[in-house]
Design brief:
The complex is a heterodimer of chains A (466) and B (366). Chain A is of the alpha/beta class. Chain A has 14 helices and 15 strands. An eight-stranded parallel β-barrel of chain B has the order 1-2-3-4-9-10-11-13, surrounded by seven helices. In chain B, strands 5-6 form a two-stranded antiparallel sheet. Classes of the chains: A alpha/beta (466), B alpha/beta (366).
Chain lengths: 466, 366
């Protein structure tokens, strides 16, 4: 790869931002390696967060799931599972970190705005302005079976609920005027009269009448993250998000196309097109040489995609049980069975399995791949592989051309999976002037270079309603 | 009868038990909601030798103007305190009148993991009608309906804590399985007003089950590890303790102690100019450290411990720390916490067997 002329790019001063995503549930986190640690011990979370902070990362993310995954009605037993409640864990990390942002993935379908907004405010105050909220939604009754409300929201309604949820949450976060609390114990009242505003909201989803219990933190509001990739999800993000956690960060052209689409959508809703940070999720595999990095990648993929996992992934694609097949043998001869509901939950559905399977067959035949190798090579391609210097050049090109604002790194190993990124890659990025050399702010909003929260901007800057 | 050692808990919400406590706090009001303040008071309580700190909560502002209206959620505070301390037990107050028991169970199990087995739960009830609007739910009105929600909420949380057996994570490289699904269990709870499927998303807490504290008139004794009993005099407390039917009983005691600057009575009188100290029907001691030590010695013959509610944390906690706990220690009236032990162990409670694992063993024996 040729090194980009630092001046002949659209964004010569752009800086790369890193987050770390402690996933908790997935098959990409290798649990079988001897140096794989506990997924629940508080020491694992501390270790990852502190390493990220040493590497001047912007944020530490936790995922969420509200029901254990199932395949054909039985609990999926191959992957890492079992994790803490995100906000609770992050409140603990607030006590043992100083700079890094703390982002909770929290569901807007199975929470209520007054409760969740208050929990996030608490995290924001305890971390002194480092909280973020990755807004996710659910549309299946299967998850609802764990909740009083039970139930089900269809795909469109879950975004309507999420949007109304955010409206209520923001009103609650704005409920206290700045400086509402008395400055001394001799003051006439603990909070200035009329400085705390009741929030009255009546909408299709929520009916709230409440005096909020907390002031804003120094960053105004928790930073809003969003990950939906559908047209609806992108529009939702353009209207509401500060950061998009995308799946478009491996191929440069794909990343750039996604970023340009988001910028168009931002302009369409009247926001500046640099108002949102785009941080694709990615895996980073580092070797001393390109060959070593590729060798390491091969080892990692074989750990991630065991024969059993390969048969499970292929079974989901073919639509029937393949667990008695040979993963190191050829692809199944049968055509995929397309069913509306196969009893598997918690994993992504494949839109058109027939065309995917025929594509897999063609490529596997051409390359001589076994079923397991096909799963490894043809599953979602994620991540960047290379030497520290080569990766730094590549990331510089991505960020300076506006394809990404940074990456949300998913370490393949917990808790030590960030060490080589922090020790080897970060210095290379710093040398290129594309990565901070110290924290210059104290809040997550400052780390990300974001403007004021959407509801706190002068009216002239705010988007028009609708 | 000479008393046995007492378990000492202290309630550390806001600036103290009195609604106007903030006026005598050692910090400016806008420092109340800061992490430094929270970690500071918890550390003083830990160093003083308390067994447990509790943190009150509710979704509505805790006081009417002109008194404090700001409060960070108790679970978030408890998690922060857990990471800022090493030995003290931590029990947030959480009501399940409206909250989702699945979330509550996950949050509390996580607190136990974070604190490495130092977590408890004070089960509360939300009886203010406005709270229903906070949750967007129909009002749960009347003691019977609230008791039903408390009972079911605690049952669900406890069942979810058992829904992972202790060794459900097997990491079996040979079979490529991370979990043993036979050691994970659907709880299939069906109550009067809702159902919960399970299993939990959080592995079983280090203590197996958190220490559950509550009022015996709102949570069935069988669901409680510790009853919190009230009474304005020793005889009432003794009666309530005798009929609690729980492994342990703590008496609620409100204290306004003499400090080097003012007597307890003077401090109460000062605050009463602004608001009256809410009467919860609890024992209340206004007086010297020595008087409190005598009261606690008497209480040690009828209960297993006390939960102290200081009038003003910044004034009473130093007296408790410097005068009361050392005197109790001299008289062998306090239990000593050992580093690395769980709250259950400190309280002398057994780690419960997992109900599902136990059922499987029984099944096998048939």
């Amino acid at each position: 790869m040729t090194r980009t002329d630092p001046l002949d790019v659209p964004r010569p001063d752009a800086q790369l931002h890193f987050g770390v995503f402690f996933q908790g549930v997935n098959h990409w986190t290798i649990w079988s390696a001897p140096d794989s640690g506990s997924q629940i011990d508080p020491a694992s979370f501390r270790r990852v967060a502190r390493t990220a902070e040493r590497g001047l990362f912007d944020a530490f993310f936790l995922g969420e799931g509200l029901r254990l995954r199932e395949v054909d009605g039985r609990i999926h037993d191959l992957d890492v599972a079992g994790r803490p409640d995100a906000i609770t864990q992050l409140a603990a990390l607030a006590a043992v970190t100083r700079h890094i942002g703390l982002v909770s993935t929290s569901n807007s379908t199975f929470n209520e705005p007054a409760d969740l907004a208050r929990r996030l405010s608490g995290l924001d105050l305890l971390s002194e302005g480092r909280a973020g909220w990755n807004v996710v939604t659910t549309d299946n009754a299967w998850t609802g079976a764990n909740f009083r409300r039970g139930g089900y929201l269809d795909h469109a309604d879950r975004y309507r609920r999420a949007e109304e949820f955010l409206t209520v949450a923001r009103a609650l976060w704005d409920g206290w005027q700045d400086g509402a609390i008395a400055g001394s114990t001799g003051a006439p009242a603990w909070s200035a009269p009329s400085a705390v505003h009741r929030v009255r909201h009546q909408g299709a989803q929520f009916d709230v009448d409440l005096a909020p219990t907390l002031p804003r933190s120094v960053q105004g509001h928790p930073v809003i993250f969003q990950a939906g990739d559908s047209g609806e999800g992108r529009d939702f993000a353009a209207r509401n998000a500060d950061v998009i956690f995308s799946a478009h960060g491996t191929d440069f052209d794909d990343a750039l196309a996604f970023a340009e689409d988001i910028r168009r959508r931002l302009r369409a809703v009247g926001r500046p097109d640099d108002d949102v940070r785009i941080l694709p999720g990615t895996e980073i595999i580092i070797g001393a040489t390109e060959a070593e990095a590729l060798e390491k990648k091969r080892w990692i993929r074989l750990q991630q995609v065991t024969p059993t996992t390969a048969l499970g992934i292929a079974g989901a694609l073919w639509g029937f049980d393949l667990s008695d097949r040979d993963a190191d043998g050829p692809l199944p001869k049968e055509d995929p069975v397309v069913s509306e509901n196969d009893g598997s939950f918690g994993s992504r559905r494949i839109a058109d399995p027939r065309s995917v399977v025929s594509e897999w067959r063609a490529k596997a035949e051409a390359q001589g791949w076994s079923l397991r190798e096909a799963v490894i090579h043809l599953g979602p391609q994620r991540g960047h592989v290379g030497t520290p210097s080569g990766l730094a050049d590549r990331f510089t090109r991505f960020v300076r051309n506006g394809a990404v604002d940074g990456f949300n790194v998913t370490p393949y190993l917990i808790p030590d999976g960030l060490d080589d990124i922090v020790d080897l890659l970060v210095p290379e990025l710093q040398e290129r002037g594309v990565y901070r050399t110290e924290y210059t702010g104290t809040t997550l909003r400052e780390h990300l270079g974001l403007r004021e929260p959407l509801t706190r901007r002068p009216a002239s800057e705010q988007r028009q309603a609708g | 009868m000479s008393g046995s050692a007492l378990h000492l808990a202290v309630e550390l919400d806001g600036d103290g038990a009195h609604p106007a406590a903030w006026r005598r706090a050692a910090h400016s009001p806008d420092q109340l909601l800061t992490p430094r303040r929270l970690a500071g008071t918890a550390t003083v309580a830990e160093n003083a030798g308390f067994t447990l700190v509790t943190l009150d909560d509710g979704p509505l502002p805790p006081g009417a103007s002109p008194n404090p209206v700001g409060r960070i959620g108790a679970v978030e505070r408890a998690a922060f305190v857990a990471a800022s301390t090493t030995t003290i037990g931590i029990a947030p107050v959480v009501a399940v009148t409206y909250a989702e028991p699945f979330h509550v169970s996950s949050q509390l199990a996580s607190l136990d993991h974070i604190s490495e087995g130092r977590a408890g739960w004070v089960v509360a009830e939300e009886d203010r009608p406005e709270a229903a609007r906070t949750w967007g739910r129909p009002e749960v009105s009347g003691p019977a309906a609230r008791a039903r929600e408390s009972r079911d909420g605690v049952r669900v949380a406890r069942a979810l804590w058992d829904s992972w057996e202790d060794d459900a994570v097997i990491r079996s490289v040979a079979t490529s399985r991370y979990l043993d699904r036979e050691r994970l269990h659907y709880i299939d709870f069906t109550g009067e007003s809702y159902a919960v499927k399970g299993p939990a998303i959080v592995p079983r807490p280090p203590q197996g089950q958190l220490v559950v504290l509550g009022r015996p008139d709102s949570v069935p004794a069988a669901q409680l590890d510790v009853a919190l009993v009230t009474g304005r005099d020793l005889a009432t407390v003794a009666g309530a303790a005798a009929s609690a039917g729980t492994p342990l009983v703590l008496a609620e005691v409100e204290v306004a102690l003499d400090t080097p600057d003012a007597t307890g009575a003077e401090r109460v009188a000062d605050l009463e100019r602004y608001a009256s100290w809410t009467d919860h029907g609890r024992l209340r001691l206004t007086g010297s450290a020595e008087q409190l030590v005598l009261l606690l010695a008497e209480l040690s013959t009828v209960v297993d411990g006390v939960r102290l509610h200081p009038l003003v944390i910044d004034e009473d906690l130093p007296v408790l720390s410097q005068r009361v706990l050392p005197a109790l220690s001299d008289r062998h009236l306090v239990t000593r916490r050992l580093p690395g032990t769980s709250l259950r162990t400190t309280l002398g409670l057994e780690r419960p067997a997992n109900r599902f694992a136990a059922a499987a063993v029984q099944e096998e024996a048939r």
